[in-house]
UniProtKB/TrEMBL annotation:
Gene3D superfamilies tied to this protein: Anti-sigma factor, zinc-finger domain
Organism: Paenibacillus dendrobii
Residue ranges that the Swiss-Prot or TrEMBL entry lists as coiled coil: none
Transmembrane segments: 90-109
Name this protein carries in UniProt: Anti-sigma-W factor RsiW
Amino acid sequence: MECNLAVSLMHDYLDDDLSKDQQLALKTHLLSCHDCRMQFKELEQTDMLMFSLNHHAPSAPLELTQRIMSALPQEKKQQPWLGWIKRHPAVTAAAVFLIVMLISSVSFWDQDTQLVVKGSDLDQVVIEGDTVIVPAGKSIAGNLTVENGKTKIYGDVNGNLTVIDGSLYQASTAHISGRVKNIDQALDWIWYKITNVFSDVAYR
């Protein structure tokens, strides 16, 4: 039984308007839920106080009655979005992770302008300023990634080639055995970063 339903049944229970099955369900919930049990005790005390006032002090001033009514515990209202988050914790965690990744990626997109070269066979690569060159007759064994620079391929790349925020020139003598990705847009770059994070986690 959910707490919202239990709270609504408490009033009917005190008015003796519940069936036996509903009474049993409410009592079972109260045994397992501390918050509802405390709220039920408060309602019980308030109900006894009101009964006492109605039977022993019928001439109580209106102001006193209003003060007592204003002191009654209010039923807790749960925000709809909070209930949805509690019912879908995995989706919520994934959404928060993606939002954090997007914000951090966008912030780094404008700041990160340094040339970055990644690969397993970089001794075959020539770097001149912001230009990465795979000379003719040279062969890269594995993937090659170039960020924030120009890429010129004259030799062989035996893997995937990824160029991020840069330009790519591939000579007629060049051979790339894998896929070629040229990522120039911020959203493509963010997606590339996110998929790389998930790939790294999967292979650990």
